[in-house]
Design goal:
By secondary structure, the protein is α/β, with parallel strands linked by helices. About 35% of the residues lie in helices and about 15% in strands. Strand 7 (about 220-225), helix 10 (about 235-240) and strand 8 (about 250) form a beta-alpha-beta unit. The protein is elongated, with a radius of gyration of 20 Å. The two termini are about 25 Å apart.
Length: about 290
């Protein structure tokens, strides 16, 4: 962890960028949800270790659980894993850091977009418009046919999963395709996944590209929260907007903190870091 002096210095730099900005790109990985009580994937308390005992019981690894073929072969196991995650996403509330980001966007009139690998829809739940969000790996709140027999994508917002607490399998109804009746699968990019239907994500990407055109010439600040290096999609996308002549990247991550020279690095959690910046950006709110 950086020294207290360096921490304060970096907070002041981040606040200064936000005070001068016209546009805001928010990047978010799994670490963003940890302060909401959601696990990340690979840390000590992450999802892979949290579910390790059930993976052993089923004789499968996390990678195989995330293979689209298993929704055709073992849908009750697969949906037991993903359905329990969806129920957790529904039950948890986004932490106050989401509201801080919204406040910056709205109070300072920042033209804002969210680029996230998270599939929990907590940005939407926190009040961000769907038109300003790109979920690069899809959303667990939407499904498609596991075959797929057609290119439809539909919401399971009101689907009620019944999970057996002993086996962690679905014991009630499963989401099924309305055309062929076979099990549905999450509209997520899984491992080894040639069948992911990208239409929903591509629509979001078109909105993201239109936003990029719109902010040309504006002073952009990039605030990246909890994006790791194992699957670096979010980190790489945020670095695409890094400006060497006028560094504009604020990377918040307690572990994977390295980045381009001139970036501002805060090696603590998302909520703690965002609250600390906000005390400098909007002292009247304290």
């Amino acid at each position: 962890m950086t020294s207290e002096k360096k921490w304060i210095e970096n907070l002041e730099k981040a606040a200064s960028l936000l005070k001068e900005a016209d546009a805001l790109l928010i990047g978010a990985g799994a670490g963003m949800g940890m302060d909401s009580g959601l696990p990340d994937f690979r840390s000590t308390g992450g999802l892979w270790r949290k579910k390790r005992s059930i993976f052993w019981l089923w004789g499968r690894s996390y990678a195989s659980m995330s293979n689209p073929g298993w929704f055709r072969k073992k849908p009750r196991e697969s949906w037991g894993f993903y359905g329990s995650r969806l129920l957790e996403y529904r039950a948890k509330e986004p932490h106050k850091g989401f509201q801080i980001l919204r406040n910056w966007a709205e109070e300072r009139g920042l033209d804002t977009f969210v680029f996230t690998s998270n599939v929990d829809e907590h940005f939407q739940k926190a009040g961000f418009s769907p038109e300003q969000i790109l979920e690069c790996h899809g959303s667990l709140h939407y499904v498609q046919c596991s075959t797929p027999c057609h290119d439809g994508i539909w919401s399971i917002k009101n689907f009620d999963f019944q999970i057996d607490p002993k086996t962690e399998m679905v014991k009630g109804d499963l989401p099924t395709c309305p055309k062929c009746g076979k099990p549905a699968r999450p509209n997520l990019l899984l491992f080894g996944d040639p069948d992911w239907l990208e239409e929903r994500m591509l629509k979001q990407r078109a909105q993201f590209e239109a936003w990029q055109e719109r902010i040309q010439g504006k002073r952009l600040v990039v605030v990246e929260c909890g994006a790791g290096t194992a699957v670096p999609t979010v980190r790489m996308r945020c670095e695409d907007f890094f400006c060497l002549e006028a560094p504009n990247l604020v990377r918040i991550n307690p572990n994977d903190i390295q980045g381009p020279f001139g970036g501002i690095f805060l090696d603590r959690g998302a909520l703690e870091s965002l609250q600390a910046i906000d005390r400098l950006v909007s002292p009247s709110r304290i």
